Amino acid sequence: MGGKELVDEQKKAPPQIASDGIALDPKDSYLYYHALTARTLYRVKTGFLTDEACNQKDLEAKIEMFARLRRLMECSNRQMAAFI
């Protein structure tokens, strides 16, 4: 940043920054997502995300575990889109 290397002062190493992979399947109306540092791919019907009557507890119950990845970073967003 600003020409300086970004370093975690406690670990004396570059920080690990979590980010999520996300893809939308408009054909079947699913939102697929996974943490890039995790091995589980989840999905949820997009209709549940836009349903104002669906509270957080109901929405959590609608989330499905879709797949387990063998290795971290195995599935890029492009590959995830091809996967679904």
List keywords for this structure.
four-stranded antiparallel β-sheet, 84 residues, 27% strand, single chain, alpha+beta
Give the overall shape, derived from the CA principal axes.
elongated
> In sequence order, what are the helices and strands, one letter per element?
EEEHHEH
Enumerate how many helices there are, as a single number. Answer: 3
Largest beta-sheet characterization: 4 strands, antiparallel
Structure notes:
It is built from 3 helices and 4 strands. The protein has a 4-stranded antiparallel beta sheet. The protein has helices at 46-50, 56-62, 77-83, and strands at 20-25, 30-35, 40-45, 64-68. With 84 residues, it is of the alpha+beta class. The mean pLDDT is 79. Helix content is 23%, strand content 27%. It has one domain (20-83).
Question: What's a concise summary of this model?
Answer:
The chain has 84 residues and is α+β, with helices and mostly antiparallel strands.
